[in-house]
């Protein structure tokens, strides 16, 4: 019959209870005397307890049962040790996952902060461009106003001269005063006009530089994507924060793979003798070119190289 640890525990607990009761009975017998009327009753009670204790200890002392019990206890200890190790492993995994989650959240926060900063910079650049445009519009408005005022002054001078020629009597003092006042106004508004012209030129130069710079970067990104693919474009973007040497090594590898389609310069080769019209170092696309090659199409003309394909100009070297 297999050993049940729970039943064995209850039997052992019962034997301990009987032993404790027997011990208490022996203490009572030590205090009583033989002529005491309760002596015999207590002796009988002690004998009964002793008999019960012996009957309880016999099954507990069975060797086969004790061996099975030891085996079961060993299995239980191993299982508990495994459970403890499993809990520790799960706890370590949870700690690692929590650390990874925190690191990922930190990276996301850094990425969001980076993009937020870029968006803020772009917004500031747009606002600055818009502000400069508004200022340029205002400068042009003030410039036009200064030109109109100077034109009015010129008309006033011409009318004054016509009136002087039509008059029979001259008034030199009034003429001198009028001429001085007009000279002062013309000088003042000419200075304003010159300031507006200088400010307009400065703002136009700044706007042109900013617009040309943005257009140049956009054009460079488009060509880079066409020449080296989107992976190289993302690598270039990441290269600003990574190792520049690894970046250029990757670009050189991509470029060498792309150069396999470059036509060799062999003036006496059979291909040239066969009537190819492609200049040397022009690019021969693959037989099934991707849509990215479309930007190199030169007016839809064809070249002969094995089979007809579109003609594409070579791009500048790295």
TrEMBL record:
InterPro entries: PDCD7. Residues 294-318 are annotated as: Disordered. It comes from the Eukaryota. This is Programmed cell death protein 7. It comes from Anopheles melas.
């Amino acid at each position: 019959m297999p050993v049940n640890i729970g039943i064995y525990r209850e039997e052992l607990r019962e034997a301990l209870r009987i032993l404790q009761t027997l011990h208490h009975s022996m203490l009572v017998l030590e205090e009583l005397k033989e002529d005491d009327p309760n002596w015999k009753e207590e002796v009988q009670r002690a004998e009964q307890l002793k008999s019960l204790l012996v009957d309880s200890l016999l099954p507990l002392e069975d060797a086969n049962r004790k061996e099975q019990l030891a085996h079961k206890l060993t299995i239980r200890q191993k299982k508990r040790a495994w459970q403890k190790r499993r809990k520790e492993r799960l706890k370590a995994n949870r700690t690692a996952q929590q650390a990874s989650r925190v690191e990922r959240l930190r990276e996301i926060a850094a990425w969001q902060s980076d993009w937020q900063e870029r968006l803020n910079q772009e917004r500031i650049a747009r606002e600055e461009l818009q502000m400069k445009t508004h200022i340029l519009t205002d400068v042009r408005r003030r410039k036009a106003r200064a030109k109109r005022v100077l034109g009015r002054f010129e008309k006033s001078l011409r009318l004054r001269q016509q009136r002087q020629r039509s008059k029979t009597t001259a008034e030199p003092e009034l003429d001198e005063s009028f001429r001085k006042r007009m000279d002062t106004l013309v000088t003042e508004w000419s200075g304003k006009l010159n300031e507006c012209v200088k400010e307009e030129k400065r703002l136009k130069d700044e706007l042109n530089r900013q617009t040309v710079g943005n257009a140049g970067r956009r054009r460079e990104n488009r060509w880079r994507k066409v020449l080296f693919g989107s992976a190289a474009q993302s690598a270039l973007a990441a290269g600003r924060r990574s190792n520049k040497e690894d970046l250029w090594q990757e670009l050189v590898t991509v470029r060498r793979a792309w150069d396999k389609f470059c036509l060799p310069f062999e003036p006496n080769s059979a291909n040239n003798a066969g009537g190819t019209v492609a200049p040397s170092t022009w690019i021969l696309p693959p037989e099934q070119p991707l849509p990215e090659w479309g930007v190199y199409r030169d007016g839809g003309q064809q070249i002969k190289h094995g089979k007809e394909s579109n003609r594409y100009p070579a791009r500048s070297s790295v």
